[in-house]
Design a protein that fits this description.
Blueprint (H helix, E strand, L loop, with lengths): L1 E5 L8 H9 L8 E6 L3 E7 L12 E2 L5 E9 L2 H9 L12 H10 L9 E9 L4 E6 L8 E6 L2 E5 L2 H4 L11 H10 L13 E2 L4 E6 L2 E6 L13 H18 L7 E4 L4 H11 L6 E6 L4 E2 L3 E2 L3 H11 L2 E6 L2 H6 L1 H8 L7 H14 L4 E3 L4 H5 L32 H9 L3 H9 L4 H7 L2 H4 L20 H26 L4 E3 L5 H9 L2 H4 E2 L2 E2 L1 H6 L6 H5 L9 H5 L4 H6 L6 H4 L7 H10 L6 H16 L5
Parallel strand pairs: 13-14, 13-18, 14-17, 18-19
Antiparallel strand pairs: 1-3, 1-9, 2-3, 4-5, 5-6, 6-7, 7-11, 8-9, 8-10, 11-12, 15-16, 20-21
Length: about 625
Amino acid sequence: MCGIAGFKIKSSFNSKIIEKMNLSLLDRGPDSEGYYFDDEFTGAIRRLKINDLVNGDQPLFNRDKSVVLFYNGEIYNYRFLRKLLENKGYKFNTNSDGEVICHLYDEFSEDLFSMLDGMFAISLWLKKERKLILARDIAGEKPLYYFKPSQNEIVYASTINALSFHPSFKSDLNLDAIWDLPTFTWTPQPDTIFSNVKSFPHSHYMVIDKKGTSLYKYDFKYVENKNFVSEKDLIDYTKHLVEQSVNDRLLSDVPVGSFLSGGLDSSIVTYIASQNVEKLNTYTIGFENVEDLQHGQSDESIYAEKFAKNLGTSHKTIKVTSSNFLLDLKSFIKSIDQPFSTSSAMGIKAISQQAKKDGVKVLLSGDCADECFGGYSWYPNLNSQTIEKYNNFPMDLSFHDYNYDDQEKIKIINSYPSHKQAWAWHYYASEAEKKKIFNKDFYKSRLSSHRFFREFNDNIYWEKEDYIAQDRDFYLRNEMLQKLDKMTMANSIEGRVPFASPKILSLSSRLRYDHFYRDGQIKWLLKQAFAEVIPKEIISRPKHGFNVPLDHWFRNDWSKLLLSCFSKDSNLYKMGIIHNKSGETIIKMLDNKKKLNGEIFFSFLVLELWLEEYKEYF
């Protein structure tokens, strides 16, 4: 989806521009295209046909065609909304889930967005009112980027690459985004790698007209704020909610598949889907079985294969090695739109490539259960207030550092201010580590990457639930959802995330810490809810997931490629991002085999390759 709206400005309303923008979205929608031209608005769509394969092309309209809709995504409760509208006398021209949006506007105006259970980026052109409305879903599953060439004009698209075809696009780099990359492996929204481009905020809509631009937040209308009589009531409700969310996301007129890592979350999603899909395709990644300091063995495919056999799914294990991923790096860079170096994305890309060959166009994912039900391995270590400060230990120790024994490491991290603990438990390069790699002239004006954490204040103590809420509000949207969308859509496949449904997000925000962690078990509530249908060996096995053995690869097959990023011939050096001795720091980090630095290394590699791929911008 892409579009241009301008009031009192018509110079950029060139059909060739919108056609180039739209063509760049071909992977996201290879099945058809649609356009709409007006004096103050032009819009376009590339469609991936999932529902109503014959009549669902866009734009879609209300009854008098005064409301023009382009949208990317799925509205899972459209049948309920359609019946509601039909009872009010509305007539429908298609069986597309999106058509409800046009008629909802006629009936409810901007309140319509609070009624949508789905993933979406929406563009509504209101012909009579001469205004544009943009909106993004509650969780932030579907991307939407924009920039404003002037006060009275906006250019928007599903990718940053599409925006680059507009003549007013500016390629000035956001240097703070580069600074943040080795810490997070992505750029936190609403920022992007380009200074003038923003990511549209989730659970918001924007109104643009001749008066200017206004941004509004909305909440999901149909959340059930139940009071649970007993813990069994809560467990039963959790099971019902997850089952409903998975079943809703089976909405499709094309073949459906599921990621299956062999862990709890994807097993739950796959189990529920298998009860309702006659032939379910399932996929997992098989790695070289090397040892990982945090997770043990890298390869978990044997567990996925056993579970898939029990369910009777059509299962495939995609075996990958360092050389496979190395060959696919250039394609990966083209898929990410802006620097994005979460290594597990490459596993999702490999599965999506195979699913595409198999004719599967929808893939269900178990992502976001960790953030909603407390699944990360450090959650048992959380404290509700900072303990006595350690004066003789480093202030840049992270959970990925195994130079200290576990108990000592936990004590040190718990001595940090809360915002710094949020970094240490979950993320990668510290502010101090980055200063050893980046050029001083580059980093001296950079903002701390900790600025994105709730309450960036040394004197604020978080409750245990706050750390989980931080992951749910920040990590879930910036990494998990973005990763799935980028890698699946690069292969013309729609990724769906049942655990990111508005109702599950709402339930999660109301849970206590002992619902997340109890009796030595993380994800206690979710495990209780599905204990009767998921094998005990899956429920009791430690969390693993799609963990790429990066540290092993960088010390072996990928070492020369990594070090070339820190040479004087690299883009990083030529652009003044790193200094001439940065490589020495990287070699020391490679030699430290008791710290997981792979994601940090991968961030610099991805940044270097991205700068090379898009060097015509700079």
